[in-house]
Design brief:
The chain is an alpha+beta fold and 242 residues long. It has 6 helices and 5 strands; from the N terminus they run ααααββαβββα.
Length: 242
């Protein structure tokens, strides 16, 4: 009793160009009835046969298959979007963590201010990061640093609104209040309110990018976390005994 050994699809020699006829395909499928079961992805691009033909007859089987195929394509697209969003969020999270560590490693107040202006843009993959504070009731010489933007009283509430702590804008410009000489470069920005407390008045942490990377509707958890670290650092350095 002999047993026919069926060749595997992936070991079959490729036919010469123009050599393959419909009869060859049909013969191959008859010899390999499980071929499509092992290569189901091929079914995605195939046209299923109609169950009925003739005018006025609706092929419900084809309609259902087309609908399922459309739902499958939509599911695949949604899954890919979730994967890409998750990767992006993890990348942003890692960048914020690196920025926080850099702030915590500052050796003094001036070092921390330089870290904000020089290191954070690189770590956060933006073009400019600035700190600004409104005038305090008792002037603080340390806040006159060249790395800190002086803001007029009421600027924070005017930009964010009295009830808001964050503002994200895309395709928005700056008149120089936030980013000074870099204002013409910035296309989108993210603002976070700072409340250091004590003798320090309200302030702003501003992130600007030449790309449209910030837009309303984005999550603010990470920029909020970064802002809390900045305001605590400002408060800690300015209230440290001489």
């Amino acid at each position: 009793m002999s047993t026919e050994i069926k060749p595997r699809a992936d070991t079959l020699p490729a036919p010469a160009k123009g050599d393959l006829a419909e009869r060859d395909v049909a013969d191959f499928l008859r010899r390999n009835p499980d071929f499509l079961a092992r290569h189901t992805h091929l079914l995605d691009g195939m046209q299923p046969p109609r169950r009925w033909t003739g005018d006025g007859i609706v092929d419900m089987q084809k309609f259902m298959l087309d609908q399922l195929r459309g739902e499958l394509d939509s599911l695949r697209a949604s899954t890919q979007e979730v994967i890409e969003t998750t990767r992006s969020n993890l990348s942003i999270q890692s960048r914020v963590h690196a920025a926080v560590l850099a702030l915590l490693q500052a050796e003094d107040f001036e070092h921390m201010i330089r870290t904000v202006g020089e290191d954070l843009p690189i770590l956060l993959d933006v073009d400019v990061v600035t700190l600004g504070f409104e005038p305090a009731e008792t002037p603080l010489p340390a806040l006159a640093s060249s790395g800190i933007r002086p803001l007029e009283a009421g600027t924070v509430d005017r930009l964010l609104g009295k009830e808001q702590d964050y503002l994200l804008q895309s395709d928005a410009g700056d008149d120089g209040t936030l980013f000074d000489s870099a204002s013409g470069l910035v296309r989108s920005f993210a603002l976070a309110r700072l409340r250091p407390g004590g003798r320090v008045a309200a302030g702003l942490l501003a992130l600007g990018s030449r790309k449209s990377v910030f837009h309303p509707g984005q999550g603010t958890e990470l920029i909020g976390f970064l802002a809390r670290v900045v305001e605590r650092s400002v408060q800690a350095w300015l209230e440290r005994p001489e």
